[in-house]
From TrEMBL:
It comes from Paenibacillus amylolyticus. This is Uncharacterized protein.
Amino acid sequence: MRIKIKIRCKQCGERFTLRGKKDRGRIETGFKQCLCDNRDQFEIEEEGMATGIQLN
Ligand SMILES: [Zn+2]
């Protein structure tokens, strides 16, 4: 399942938008670290979660 992921660095505030893969609840992006060498402090947001849901 391909998804779009938004990552925000909690250290420097840099934002990244990546395409990733979701597999059994785990998200893989290949993203390793921010420009500021931060590797752990991120806010991760999955985009398009509501796609495919329709209310009639
Ligand atoms: Zn950063």
